[in-house]
Hints:
372 residues; alpha/beta; 8-stranded parallel beta sheet; 3-stranded antiparallel beta sheet; binds the ligand CC#C[C@H]1NC(N)=Nc2cc3[nH]c(NC)nc3cc21; binds zinc ion
Amino acid sequence: MPVPGRFTIHARDGKARRATLHTAHGEIQTPVFMPVGTQGSVKAVGPDDLLQAGSQIILGNTYHLYLRPGDELVARRGGLHRFMSWDKPILTDSGGFQVFSLSTIRKISEKGVEFRSYLDGSKHFFSPEKAISIQQNLGSDIMMVLDECVGYGADREYTARSLERTTRWARRCREVHTPGADGQLMFGIIQGGFHEDLREESLGQLLEIPFEGYAIGGLSVGESTEDMYRILNHIGPRMPEEKPRYLMGVGTPMDILEGIESGVDMFDCVLPTRNARNGTLFTSQGKVNIKRAEFREDDGPLDPNCQCYTCRNFSRAYLRHLYTAREILSYRLNSLHNIAFFLELARQAREAIEGGRFAELKAHYQGIYGTD
Ligand SMILES: CC#C[C@H]1NC(N)=Nc2cc3[nH]c(NC)nc3cc21
Ligand SMILES: [Zn+2]
């Protein structure tokens, strides 16, 4: 009988790990890429498409689903899995990042954060307890604690005070959900900005609270790749060896491979779906901008090395036509392919770690995406 939260490491290659995370809705083979379904839908693709592309787990978002259609409505409809007909694992973010990035007006206090809805400007309040209650209503397999999200460029003093509050909020989140209750897992979120010592401080404080996994928050928020990798390389290997490590909101193909090399297991990013909608497609030979005139009469597949529905059935000429004609099918086919690319990258990483060849895989992609 699988125990939700059990994390078994099968192989290592340097700091990279090949593992299995057990959840109430099935196993997750890691390293894993998680398509983002912010409002209960991975934009332009359906659950059947996601399954066919090999998606093991998707993301939902507390902030958005609370505001619309409402977490209590979703609970009355049987929870998010049933509501969106996705019966594999779902991770929900706590809303911390969205409150700080989407809601302009907000007031932070020890109790929580007051914000105005990006939809209609109405006033709302998230306490750590409320953020967990929403995720319990949604029924997600992995819940994230409510963290205070510090923007890029915040000074050290504020960053230090903020991580202390994030720890106090994390403790309050843990106090309202018994570990493993209803099969739901809870991950803590490490803050500390771009200061190695503050990151260690945040991690050390969170280790005193029993979480089933730990996430790195606050990267890919406008910093240089060099700064991101510096913090990633520092804190990744210091996170608990025996628990899943999640890098939130990251990233490009090279960011993901850098994260895996630093010992991170889980990744999510809107890049594949967002870039699909503006015609930027990720292929085994590099990025392709499908709107370019050179593809007008190109009968070849988008990516000859890709097995996705888009690459098996449509030409670059047709994909370019759909994009320039603003056909809705363009969103679907481009998103399908980009999601398949990121899922395939994660699958190749799992295979490479098993074979002790991760360094070669990373070097291969460095040659294609390295100057990106
Ligand atoms: C500061 C901080 C922080 C993190 N906190 C929470 N709860 N969610 C996140 C989601 C993210 N998505 C992206 N995309 C670039 N970065 C993220 C960072 C976080
Ligand atoms: Zn494809």
